[in-house]
């Protein structure tokens, strides 16, 4: 079962949304505008650290996980095997429903053909998943998969 690596993150609401800014502060004293700009910058930085930094950390963990491609390959191969098993069961049920029975030689040939197709499909699915996981890691490291590319997540700003 697929579960997003981002689903466990607990991201607080925006901290800057409730920030009250007094525009008149910019005109108080010699450093009023500088102090106001500093407060706004600190508030924005704290908000970024609270809301976006956990995603960056998770992306970093994904990019540095050396076992991720192998895990993806095993998962894809297993899923392909399950799909073949389900298809084989459906085929057997169809044959039973139609009253068709195979001879021993026909059943053996069908099993051999299915086993070869199953193995080839499992290997292909595993290889494709491994390549995709490596590509994803490379994209994260290259900066091409940032916060805007998190599947299933919308970052509220």
> How many separate helices?
4
Distance between the termini: 30 Å
Mean pLDDT: 81
Give unreliable regions as ranges. none
SSE order, one letter for each helix or strand: HHHH
- Given the C-alpha coordinates, what overall shape results? rod-shaped
Tell me about the largest β-sheet: none
- Structural class by sheet pairing and helices: mainly alpha
Extended strand count = 0
Q: How many individual domains?
A: 2
Radius of gyration: 27 Å
The percent range for strand residues is: under 5%
Report the helical percentage. 55-70%
Written account of the structure:
The mean pLDDT is 81. α2 (53-64) crosses α4 (104-142) and α3 (68-98) runs antiparallel to α4. The two termini are 30 Å apart. With 157 residues, the chain is mainly alpha-helical. The protein contains four helices and no strands. It is rod-shaped and about 100 Å long. It has two domains: 23-64; 67-148 and 153-157. The longest helix is centred in the last third of the chain and has 39 residues, at 104-142.
Question: How is the topology of this model organized?
Answer:
Layout: H1 32-51, H2 53-64, H3 68-98, H4 104-142
Helix pairs in contact: 2-4, 3-4
Question: What features would you highlight for this structure?
Answer:
157 residues, rod-shaped
Offer a concise description of the structure.
With 157 residues, this protein is mainly alpha-helical. The protein has helices at 32-51, 53-64, 68-98, 104-142. The chain contains four helices and no strands.
């Amino acid at each position: 079962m697929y579960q997003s690596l981002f689903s466990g993150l607990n991201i607080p609401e925006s901290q800057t949304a409730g920030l009250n800014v007094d525009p008149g502060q910019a005109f108080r004293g010699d450093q009023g505008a500088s102090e106001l700009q500093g407060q706004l910058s600190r508030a924005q930085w704290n908000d970024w650290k609270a809301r976006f930094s956990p995603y960056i950390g998770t992306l970093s963990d994904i990019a540095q996980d050396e076992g991720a491609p192998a895990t993806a390959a095993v998962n894809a191969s297993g899923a392909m095997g399950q799909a073949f098993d389900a298809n084989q069961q459906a085929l057997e049920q169809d044959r039973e429903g139609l009253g068709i029975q195979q001879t021993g030689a026909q059943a053996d040939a069908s099993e051999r053909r299915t086993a070869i197709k199953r193995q080839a499909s499992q290997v292909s699915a595993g290889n494709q998943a491994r390549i995709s996981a490596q590509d994803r890691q490379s994209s994260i490291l290259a900066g091409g998969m940032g916060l805007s590319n998190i599947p299933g997540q919308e970052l509220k700003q």
